[in-house]
From TrEMBL:
It holds the Pfam family Abhydrolase_1. It comes from Meiothermus ruber (strain ATCC 35948 / DSM 1279 / VKM B-1258 / 21). PANTHER family: AB HYDROLASE SUPERFAMILY PROTEIN YCLE (PTHR43798:SF31), MONOACYLGLYCEROL LIPASE (PTHR43798). Keywords: Hydrolase. Residues 24-248 form the AB hydrolase-1 domain. One of its GO terms (cellular component) is membrane. The lineage of its organism: Bacteria, Thermotogati, Deinococcota, Deinococci, Thermales. One of its GO terms (biological process) is beta-ketoadipate pathway. InterPro entries: AB_hydrolase_1, AB_hydrolase_fold, AB_hydrolase_sf, PcaD/CatD. This is 3-oxoadipate enol-lactonase. GO terms for molecular function: 3-oxoadipate enol-lactonase activity.
Length: 266
């Protein structure tokens, strides 16, 4: 059984899971308001072919939730510290939504640590200052459980809510129970984070994935990201913002095909 593990870093404690052997090491980064469990299906589809590291971002899951606001650099520094703690010199970063931005930020700051990037339902800039300030204000006024009802509607397709009601309820619980300090702190990181000026400088091979029905970070945003990186965009049919939950086997298939292109033929 894969047990929970915790890394006491110099500035906070992160919850993580490390499993599998071989190369490369894949590092999965979760989205705003979720935790490492959103990758369960994708990791299972990889069938133990790679070494896999998952962790809860600061302010999420079982990781510490320090007082915000946070920055993208805070998040990427957490990742770098965790990699150093575990003795991982280079990794393939697989990030979704804000996790994708964190992966990009580490790739521009520490390119020697990044083997490749798989960027899911994300962009070099997500939303606007006004949109994130509005969400922060709404949560401060109404509370996260109330705002989460609107947010989660963009996580999944209508079919998911109809056909997989129990899962939808469970993911609402995950979102609504995220530490408020962590959620707001990461909203601030998204509000202030803009990596568009640095895209052309990022040299790591990249694959961009996006749910074809994603309204939170729509395919047009992913197309801009792919063009900026000189990467390929693959749309995941009949999924919204979290294809890793709605279609994990297909996401895993794209990851495996990409790794094969890079010479990891396992």
């Amino acid at each position: 059984m894969n047990m929970a593990s915790f890394a006491a870093l110099h500035h906070l404690t992160l919850h993580y899971r490390l499993e599998g052997e071989g190369t490369p090491t894949l590092v999965f980064l979760n989205s705003l308001g979720s935790d490492l469990r959103i990758w369960d299906g994708v990791v299972a589809s990889l069938e133990g072919r790679y070494r896999v590291l998952r962790y809860d971002l600061r302010g999420h899951g079982l990781s510490d939730a320090p007082v915000g606001p946070y920055t993208l650099e805070d998040h990427s520094a957490d990742l770098l510290a965790l990699l150093a703690h575990l003795g991982v010199p280079r990794a393939v970063l697989v990030g979704i939504s804000v996790g994708g931005l964190i992966a990009l930020d580490l790739a521009r700051r520490q390119p020697e640590r990044v083997e490749a990037l798989v960027l899911c339902d994300t962009g070099a800039r997500i939303g606007s200052q006004d949109s994130w300030n509005e969400r922060i204000a709404a949560i401060q006024h109404k509370g996260l459980p109330e705002v989460a009802r609107t947010v989660i509607a963009r996580w999944f397709t209508e079919d998911f809510f109809v056909q997989r009601k129990a899962e939808a309820a469970g993911y609402y619980n995950m979102l609504s129970r995220t530490p408020v300090e962590g959620y707001l702190g990461t909203c601030a990181a998204l509000r202030d984070g803009d990596l568009r000026p640095w895209l052309r400088s990022i040299r790591a091979p990249a694959l961009v994935l996006c749910g074809e029905l994603d309204k939170a970070t729509p395919p047009e945003l992913s197309q801009e990201l792919a063009q900026g990186l000189g990467a390929r965009l693959e749309l995941i049919p009949q999924t919204a913002h979290l294809p890793c939950v709605e279609a994990p086997a297909l996401v895993g298939q794209h990851i495996r095909s990409f790794l094969k292109e890079l010479g990891y033929d396992r």
